Amino acid sequence: MRTGLLHFGLATLTPAALLALGAIWGGIWVVAAVLYLTAMTSLLDRLIGADSNPQALEADQALSVTIACTHFALLPLTVWALAGQTLGGLEKLGLFFAAGLWFGQVSNANAHELIHRQSRALHRLGMWSYITLLFGHHTSAHVLVHHRHVATAADPNTSRKGEGLYRYMIRAWAGSFRQGYLAERARLVRIGRPAWRNPYLVYVSGAALCLMAATKLGGWQGLVAYLALCGYAQSQLLMSDYVQHYGLTRAVQSDGKPEPVAARHSWNSPHWFSSALMLNATRHSDHHAHPGRHYPELTIPDDAPMLPRPLPLMASIALIPPLWRRIMDPRVERWRNA
Fold first, then answer.
1. 231: CB partners within 8 A, 6+ apart
2. 212-260, pLDDT tens digit by residue?
3. CA-CA distances (angstroms) from residue 199 to 95, 177, 278?
4. HEC string of the chain?
């Protein structure tokens, strides 16, 4: 790995190693994983602070492939540990909490990176990362719906001003599943391919296989642990979308179409460590302007809206809707009137 990209590897793979050790031996390893993904991340963001001029680095796909392979090994290991008798109750609770954060923030950010790649192999690697989290439809909905309709009422993953997180998550999950399917169906008609080529068949059948595998691995306890872990990880992804697009809308032009996507239509966070942990998903405006741009190359435009705190902390604040609205609604209004 190139020296300039080393911090991405250390930030993303260190907690995975701690989680693996915690799943096998429990104890201090579970505590270390929890602290790494919560207190240490928050502390380093505070100590290192924001990078006002983030550097763009040359892309390197080796780390993305490594994280995906780690995902496929760590997920069944975690389910096995949660369903087994090796760990105590508190150890299982800590492992569940930390693993959900890693799958929902780190591995999700990596899968998001991969589904935007032109390489069919890399795209499918990201797709199967989502399928194993029972979220395969995001592969289609994100690329075909979210990027096309972001910051408009037509996008289920754009959160509206005044909309609480919990209502949003229900609307976004159901809406993206439906609209992703319709977008894929329309795409198949447009390119003249049969309906059975719809990738939703792969998403659903793949999810069914994963559910059977979890049951085989840990019985009904394994199935429950797997469902809970996937739901928790999915909530992390939805929280990120909620925070990064809250209240920002594209103006409607004279021809009835929304204005082009610009930096002002996504919230960003420049904090160095959490950005490394989430593979620069925090540089969201640049991603929407250039969806094919690799994560190390993303920067933050000068005119991009900035979150008042790091993205993980803002997601935690979103869990308390009145507090979230008090902090964010005035900022939304300022950007709408700018």
1. none
2. 999 999 999 999 999 999 999 999 999 999 999 999 999 999 888 999 9
3. 33, 12, 27
4. CCHHHHHHHHHHHHHHHHHHHHHHHCCHHHHHHHHHHHHHHHHHHHHHCECCCCCCCCCCCHHHHHHHHHHHHHHHHHHHHHHCCCCCHHHHHHHHHHHHHHHHHHHHHHHHHHHCCCCHHHHHHHHHHHHCCCCCCHHHHHHHHHHHHCCCCCCCCCCCCCCCHHHHHHHHHHHHHHHHHHHHHHHHHHHCCCHHHCCHHHHHHHHHHHHHHHHHHHHHHHHHHHHHHHHHHHHHHHHHHHHHHCCCCCCECCCCCECCCCHHHCCECCEHHHHHHCCCCCCHHHHHHCCCCCHHHCCCCCCCCECCCCHHHHHHHHCCHHHHHHHHHHHHHHHHHC
What pLDDT is stored for residue 51 in this prediction?
64
Closest CA to 281 of 322, 237, 230, 251: 237
Q: Determine if residue 247 is left, alpha or beta; phi over 0 gives left, psi from -120 to 50 gives alpha, anything else beta.
A: left
Q: Indicate the burial class of 248 (C-beta count within 10 angstroms; 0-12, 13-18, 19 or more).
A: buried
Distance (Å, whole) CA 300 – CA 89: 43
| Per-residue pLDDT at 52 exceeds 60 | no
N-terminal to C-terminal alpha carbon distance within the chain? 42
Question: What's the confidence (pLDDT) of residue 182?
Answer: 97
270-302 pLDDT tens trace: 998 999 999 999 999 999 999 999 999 999 998
The answer on pLDDT for 110 being more than 70 is: yes
The model's pTM: 0.94
For residue 55, the model assigns a pLDDT of 61
Q: What is the C-alpha to C-alpha distance for residues 81 and 61, in angstroms, rounded to an integer? A: 30
> 51 near 274, Cβ under 8 Å?
no
Residue 251's Cβ-count burial label (10 Å; 0-12, 13-18, 19+) is exposed
Average pLDDT rounded to a whole number, residues 83-90:
96
